[in-house]
């Protein structure tokens, strides 16, 4: 009996020592460590890719010919009344776009900052419009007709304008969040576009001088004068710029998804606003899908 108790004690001591030497596995404690459960993706590094999509173009031609009319009516009484005429309207068009991008991400925990350069080519992204307007301008500021004479300046303007956006490069700063295989992000930056812009205006000006008199009975009588052309302000002016570079700004948001190791897909929306060229303002809305690889 004593030998049996001694043997049982020795066995218990050996079992305790062996349990103390075993590794402390997380599964034995009923859970996993952060290292085994971490689902974040490494987005840090240089990446490159290509994209394609759809572009909606809104071109504002309302003030496009103002520079030409100011030249035609310079130093005349008609310059001020015609300076802000909205001869034409905003025109919309759509086209496809193709491009490429190159960038660099820096990751701090779940936050991702990046700098990206893009190139976009637009397939026949052209807009065209025309318009006409007539107005009877009576004794405009600076006009000095003879006594009892009223000047009627008849001004008719006919204009056309066109704009074509060929391509664009941009430099964008990005800020994203590591959502595992997903990375939502937003961006903003500067852009330079290449455009062809043209405008033409034709003016036709006449002058009629009506005389106000009083007859023998004290009645006021208006004698309508003869309408005469004014050749100095009746002319056509045209201006055209080819491959004109114009600056602007971009902003938007997107989402990237890791497909396999460094291969990822993206979808994004981009708003582009260019500074006016010859009083013609262009705005773009770009929707794209792309494929890239992070090294």
Structural features, described:
An 8-stranded antiparallel β-barrel has the order 1-2-3-4-5-8-9-10. The chain is built from 4 helices and 10 strands, in the order ααβααβββββββββ. It has one domain (44-294). Strand 8 and strand 9 form a beta hairpin. The two termini are 73 Å apart. It has helices spanning 2-21, 34-37, 66-72, 79-82; strands at residues 45-60, 90-108, 111-138, 149-177, 182-214, 220-223, 227-229, 236-260, 263-274, 281-294. With 295 residues, it is mostly beta strands.
Concise synopsis of the structure shown:
This protein is mainly beta. Helix content is 12%, strand content 62%.
The assigned structural class equals mainly beta
Order of helices and strands: HHEHHEEEEEEEEE
- Indicate the percent of residues in helices: 10-25%
Q: Mean pLDDT, rounded to whole units?
A: 87
Number of strands: 10
The helix tally amounts to 4
The description of the largest β-sheet is: 8 strands, antiparallel, barrel
Strand order of the largest sheet: 1-2-3-4-5-8-9-10
Strand portion? over 45%
Give the distance, in angstroms, between the N- and C-terminal Cα atoms.
Answer: 73 Å
Overall tally of domains: 1
The radius of gyration computed from the alpha-carbon positions, rounded to a whole number of angstroms, is 37 Å
Q: List low-confidence stretches.
A: 1-38
User: Globular, elongated, flat, extended or rod-shaped: what is the shape?
Assistant: rod-shaped
């Amino acid at each position: 009996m004593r030998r049996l108790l001694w043997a049982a004690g020795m066995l218990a001591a050996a079992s305790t020592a062996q349990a103390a030497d075993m590794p402390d596995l997380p599964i034995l404690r009923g859970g996993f460590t952060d290292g085994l459960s971490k689902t974040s993706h490494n987005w840090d590094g240089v990446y490159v890719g290509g994209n394609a999509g759809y572009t909606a173009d809104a071109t504002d031609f309302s003030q496009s010919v103002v520079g030409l009319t100011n030249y035609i009516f310079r130093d005349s009484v008609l310059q001020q009344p015609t300076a802000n005429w909205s001869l034409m309207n905003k025109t919309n068009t759509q086209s496809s776009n193709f491009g490429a991008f190159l960038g660099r991400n820096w990751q701090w925990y779940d936050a991702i900052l990046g700098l990206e350069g893009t190139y976009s080519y637009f397939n026949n992204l052209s807009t065209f419009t025309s318009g006409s307007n007539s107005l009877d301008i009576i004794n405009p500021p600076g006009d000095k007709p003879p006594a009892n004479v009223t000047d009627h300046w008849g001004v008719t303007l006919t204009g056309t304008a066109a704009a074509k956006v060929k391509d664009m490069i941009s430099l964008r700063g990005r800020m994203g969040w590591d959502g595992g295989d997903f990375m939502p992000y937003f961006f903003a930056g500067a852009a330079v576009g290449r455009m062809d812009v043209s405008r033409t205006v034709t003016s036709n000006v006449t002058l009629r001088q009506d005389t106000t008199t009083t007859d023998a009975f004290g009645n006021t009588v208006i004698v309508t004068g003869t309408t005469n052309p004014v050749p100095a302000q009746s002319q056509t002016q045209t201006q055209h710029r080819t491959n004109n570079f114009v600056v602007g700004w971009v902003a938007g948001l997107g989402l990237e998804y890791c497909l396999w190791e460094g291969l990822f897909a993206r979808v994004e929306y981009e708003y582009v606003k260019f500074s006016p060229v010859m009083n013609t303002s262009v705005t773009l809305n770009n929707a794209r899908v792309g494929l890239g690889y992070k090294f």
